[in-house]
Amino acid sequence: MKAIRIHAMRRTSLTALAVIAAAALLASCGKNEPAEPAEAAAGAGGKEIVEFKYPDNPGFDLVYLADELGYFDGTSTRPKYVGKIAAPQIIPLVGTGDIDFGSRMVPLVISAIASGADIKVVSAGGKTLEDAPHMKYFARADSGIKKAKDLEGKTIGINSFGACAEFVSKKYFKEQGVDVSKIKFLVVPDDKQEQTLEQGGIDLAIIHAPFSGRAGKNEKFTQLWSDYDLDGGLGGMAPYSANGEFARKHPEAVRDFVATIAKTANWVNDHPEEAKAIIAKRLNMNVEYIDRFAYVEDLVVTEPPIQYYIDILEENGKIDKGKVKVKDVYTNEFNPNASGSA
Fold first, then answer.
1. Which segments of the protein form a coiled coil according to its record (predicted)?
2. Is residue 27's pLDDT more than 50?
């Protein structure tokens, strides 16, 4: 196994704090103020290094792993961590340029594009497998909840509206004859869902990896399903999206970003236990509680996961039919592993 060099991953500075303050103001007030431009500095050999603004959130993320492994060394780009950003705000802030890249689910990107946001998917992300699902569904063992129909009149925890936890679940529940209007959905961060479920604040927790692993070992819970059970994993691909202006100004940095996280994704697929150990240390969690992650090979984007969510959003009246096409959502032009660009 390659030696792992520990980098200073969390640079807290007045500049970073200012970026977060601006992001919060944008989210609450809707003001369209200019974003802080990407910083450039000279690296080894005088090569210009473009820093990209990125959230410093708890979770399993290729950017953190690549940084830890030293995979950004020798490239034209580096992460500039700007502090924790709530999951629902990541895609809006990529759209405004307050952060340059973000990893969130496809329907959020589609909705942002439909609203005119300057954003595009530049690489694929997680791959749902039967033994490495994107999210798991837990109820208390004493709750009496056994099937989807039992959820009517109950409260379900999701990490945000407009993403996989909402749309994949509602699609499945409807297929099982559930009246989803009788279910209350409550936003609870993934790392808080286990506690909220145990305390009775919700009746069903939909938890994403890596936090789903700890819930799976809680003897008070029973796991009902995973997203692999619901749709074979079609809705579980969480891609990486880039701000359009950043990509136009810094195409080499975007190419290096995509190439680096693709290299990291393939490393994770080949070294799942080592990857879990890095994330466990980052999150200060027992490695036994970290669920495995798997990634799309080479992070090349394919169209079925995108079309899947376009169809769902159209069926639910979230976007006008035909307003967003698959090709509007993604490009493989920055991925050196793609046989062709789109």
1. none
2. no
The Cα-based distances of 80 to 38, 55, 77, 102, 332 in angstroms read 9, 8, 10, 13, 24
Banded model confidence at residue 236, pLDDT cuts 50, 70, 90: confident
* Residue 83 confidence (pLDDT) above 50: yes
**pLDDT above 50 for 24:** no
| Angle, vertex CA 60, rays to CA 219 and CA 202, nearest 5 | 40
Give the 3-state secondary structure of residue 181: helix
**What does the alpha-carbon distance between residue 258 and residue 299 come to, in Å, rounded to a whole number?**
8
C-beta separation of 194 from 207 below 8 A: yes
The structure tokens listed for 271 are: 């070294």
Check whether 153 has a pLDDT greater than 90.
Answer: yes
Dihedral sign, CA of 107, 113, 115, 118?
Answer: positive
Torsion angle of C-alpha atoms 237, 340, 326, 253, degrees rounded to 10: 70
